[in-house]
Amino acid sequence: MLDKLHEECGVFGIYDNDGLDVILSAYHGLYSLQHRGQESCGMAVNDDGLITGYKDTGLVNEVFTKEVLASMGSGKMAIGHCRYSTTGNQNRINAQPLIIRHVKGPMALAHNGNLTNAAELREELEMTGAIFHTTSDTEVIAYTITKERLISHSIEDAVCAAMNKIKGAYSLVIMSPKKLIAVRDPLGFRPLCMGKIKNSYVFASESCALDSIGAQFVRDIEPGEIVVIDENGPRSIKTHCGCEKSSLCVFEFIYFARPDSVVDGSCVHIARQRAGSFLALEHPVQADVVIGVPDSGLDAALGYAKQSGIPYGVGFIKNKYIGRTFIQPGQTQRENAVRIKLNTVRSTVEGKRVVLIDDSIVRGTTSARIVKLLRESGATEVHMRLSAPPFRYPCYFGTDIDSSENLIAYKHSLEEMRQMIGVDSLGFLSVESAKKIAGNSKCGFCAGCFTGEYPIEVPSTQKKSKFEKKISESND
Ligand code: SF4
Q: So what's the pLDDT on residue 402?
């Protein structure tokens, strides 16, 4: 695990009624969702009921070269996916969309989230003869829907029935020969929205993907809702809506989502500024300048500066050209890695008392290196403020906090962390304020990794390790 939390995935789907190039639209949509997953990506296209796909490890522009895009032909519908794995390995086989071929018809499926009962369901299915090709929980969803299809009138009925069985976080786009379907779990852990371009319909994890293809935002998919698009237009099924108090991941606003996205009615950029202004109220300090760690600390730094009256400054320049291919230095040169990625603007911090804003601390090692850089550039005091509460517990809903053991705040007191990071003072946003940052939001929030109180039952350690064991066995 790195020193940042990772989101699992981004999903995209388009149903064309205007002669649009659905493959190019999905490509552009995925491009703007790249921040949600950089390990693998894929697309499935539906040409007159025939579903084909292409997926591989790598970034969207690496996987979908001109030649690959040209080879995909054309179609009326397409779905896409970019992935950062939290369940299953990072290999090609777990890339999505999954394409299922079955007597009841083909289906393609892309998933953002994480099931909490995947291990049990998988075991049940395997005991009835199911054979899994991947180690991801997405295949468990695909199997569950396919099984329900045997006794359902339609694919949407099968999806609705499958939702009685699968538990946890799932925002899905599903493509059948004639329909494009968007599904959000009843608690709405992960975002999913709907847009329209001319007479065509689009689904995406975030509204920034709609903007990228010139689609208008229509609305968010409600927690528990199924939206079906076919030749008759969109139709909503709300059997699973309103059953439970919604629990959108609050960290979507703090870090995961792009600041230009609007999630469940709230602008991410404004939510981050609000986090900064709450921080200034909760943890005031006498200082000369407020700076943010690029990128997601910048908005919160603006908010802190506005609220506190301390001037905002640009304290760091981030090297924009560092890609996944950046060769990580050895252990003894780790500090250089931070220097290469991030450089201080000496004139902003030299001789000054600095308020340093970042979004969160996972292990604390990167924070300590950043603070060292500031001191070397002449900062006289460094007061660190975090626009998230301390992470203390694992996440079971689609991020890579898999164990408390990796979390600095689980093992250490505030004073110990302050010393380890090397700052003059340290302050985290409170959980109460974190839940208020998305002021216009129409939903409730999950804050399980901060409080240990989860909105639904989570797997016991025993169950979790059993699933992990099963996965590793299946890789032998
Ligand atoms: S546990 Fe934390 S990271 Fe996971 S969904 Fe809840 S708020 Fe988000």
A: 73
